[in-house]
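Q: what sequence does this backbone want?
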């Protein structure tokens, strides 16, 4: 039996959860049209409750994509990822027979920034007939279900985050050490809490990820490595997850402060073209 659609109070859309903990598809929303304040507030409320919301059949322009995201805050320009020509705020993420997908690791976006993203709005431009799904995992649930002894060790702890993966990519592409050092100066390693308190909901969630977290401050390396491996593994627990199957013009809008995601790279050599716009967030606390 399928999950019944819900009608949130005062919302101009119906909502269907993808899973009990995380993820909901919103219906009767046209992102090509300007949204009034009430509609915007209802979408924000759904995002805060479900951590990621999805829209289907959004045949929108790049300018409309940007306009929607800007209603939630200022937009970032990613210093390492490829941009759509003429649109520095739009990441052009394309994989095909010459470029296999590599986002298949659980992560939160740009946690190497002092102020990582609030969230991202990702639109499918071209997708495989099958494969290329994205999974999302609820970091509130991941924290809530930790053993008490683990919570005692990590509450109040901080971890170092770094763009090490992108540094390696720069070297592989032949960038010189002077250019790399310039990026090191622009984006020095930062410390963020291992357990983040969400600035809008007040809920606690895990805020370490395998892509960018380096070590927990004050722990010996072996203990830090073991603890981080255990915490990273929480994202892979199915009970905390939802899975979204893309179609052309589908959109996912996720709260980067409350969830992690994993782009499944099972579609090679098929083409998967996505465009992502990212909203600047605040300093994690």
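A:
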């Amino acid at each position: 039996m399928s999950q019944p659609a819900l009608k949130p109070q005062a919302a101009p859309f119906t909502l269907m959860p993808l899973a009990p903990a995380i993820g909901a598809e919103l219906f009767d929303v046209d992102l090509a049209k300007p949204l009034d304040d009430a509609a915007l507030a209802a979408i924000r409320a759904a995002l805060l409750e479900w951590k990621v919301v999805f829209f289907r059949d959004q045949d929108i322009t790049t300018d409309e994509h940007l306009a929607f995201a800007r209603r939630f805050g200022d937009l970032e320009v990613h210093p390492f990822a490829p941009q759509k020509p003429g649109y520095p705020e739009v990441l052009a993420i394309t994989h095909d027979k010459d470029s296999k997908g590599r986002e298949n690791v659980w992560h939160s976006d740009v946690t190497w920034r002092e102020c990582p993203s609030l969230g991202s709005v990702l639109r499918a431009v071209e997708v495989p007939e099958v494969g290329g799904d994205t999974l999302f995992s609820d970091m509130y649930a991941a924290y809530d279900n930790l053993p008490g002894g683990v919570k005692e060790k990590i509450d109040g702890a901080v971890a170092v985050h770094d763009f090490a993966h992108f540094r390696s990519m720069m070297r592989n592409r032949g960038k010189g050490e002077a250019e790399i050092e310039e990026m090191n100066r622009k984006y020095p390693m930062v410390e963020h809490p291992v357990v983040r308190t969400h600035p809008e909901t007040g809920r606690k969630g895990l805020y370490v990820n395998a892509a960018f977290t380096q070590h927990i401050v004050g722990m010996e390396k072996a203990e830090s490595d073991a603890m981080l491996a255990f915490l990273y593994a929480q994202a892979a627990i199915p009970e905390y997850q939802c899975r979204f199957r893309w179609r052309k013009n589908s959109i996912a809008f996720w709260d980067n402060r409350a969830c992690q995601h994993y782009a499944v790279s099972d579609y090679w050599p098929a083409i998967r073209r996505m465009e992502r716009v990212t909203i600047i967030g605040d300093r994690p606390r």
